[in-house]
């Protein structure tokens, strides 16, 4: 019997933050006489004991022939009648739009402007709240053709559960021997590809939805030495 994996310090840190938030609003919202101060005072000790820690910035991108391996795997998977999720198209749309998987599966036919090659993305994740944070993004590359190829089965273009997509993606990685690759890493891959193609950070931000360009630079873009070598810049 396999032992269950224990949550890491970064995960526990999130849990502690949630406990603190509940205690902070407990009196005003629930009428409970409580205080967040004990949690605040415990933070330094928890950090010193390494029981909690800040999450490390991810740098993983698609490497080598991983894109081709995954694409071929999804193509074979979709040949089975039991497969109802268009993994290939969702995989590619994630790489051409920089959207989170929850945003991809929330795209609606009503919000598509095919003549202008753009689409409205509703309730995008935002530090100040996602509700009502709608942004319109350009459909670059093959995005529009992928969308138009989908059957109109409901109001959503990709009417599937995002968790099912990520679970299927992880199963594919495991079978292919691809390690330490998460579905959300595709968002970084997509953003960095646009930078490498010559788009400015400001232009990429209109696609990713970032308001803070520093975050886009530090977290979602990772220019590799190999890319710079390909440009073969002559400094002489």
TrEMBL record:
Keywords: DNA integration, DNA recombination. Pfam families: Phage_integrase. Residues 57-233 form the Tyr recombinase domain. The keyword Transmembrane does not apply. The keyword Repeat does not apply. InterPro entries: DNA_brk_join_enz, Integrase-like_cat_sf, Integrase_catalytic, Tyrosine_recombinase_XerCD. This is Tyrosine-type recombinase/integrase. It comes from Alteromonas oceani. The lineage of its organism: Bacteria, Pseudomonadati, Pseudomonadota, Gammaproteobacteria, Alteromonadales.
């Amino acid at each position: 019997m396999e032992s269950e994996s224990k949550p890491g310090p970064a995960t526990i840190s999130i849990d502690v933050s949630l406990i603190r938030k509940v205690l902070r609003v407990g009196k005003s919202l629930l009428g409970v006489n409580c205080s967040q101060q004990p949690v605040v005072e415990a933070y330094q000790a928890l950090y010193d004991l390494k029981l909690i820690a800040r999450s490390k910035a991810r740098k993983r991108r698609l490497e080598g022939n991983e894109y081709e391996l995954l694409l071929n795997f999804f193509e074979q998977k979709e040949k089975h009648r039991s497969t109802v999720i268009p993994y290939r198209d969702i995989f590619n749309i994630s790489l051409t739009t920089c959207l989170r998987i929850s945003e991809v599966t929330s795209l609606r036919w009503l919000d598509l402007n095919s003549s202008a090659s753009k689409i409205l993305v509703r309730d995008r994740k935002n530090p100040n709240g996602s509700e009502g944070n709608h942004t319109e993004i350009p459909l670059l590359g093959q995005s529009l053709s992928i969308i138009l190829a989908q059957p109109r089965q409901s109001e959503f273009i990709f009417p599937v559960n995002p968790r099912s997509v990520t679970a299927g993606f992880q199963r594919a990685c495991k079978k292919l021997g691809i390690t330490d690759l998460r579905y959300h890493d595709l968002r970084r891959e997509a953003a960095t590809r646009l930078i490498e193609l010559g788009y400015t950070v400001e232009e990429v931000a209109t696609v990713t939805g970032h308001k803070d360009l520093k975050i886009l630079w530090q977290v979602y873009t990772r220019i590799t030495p190999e890319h710079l070598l390909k440009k073969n810049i002559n400094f002489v």
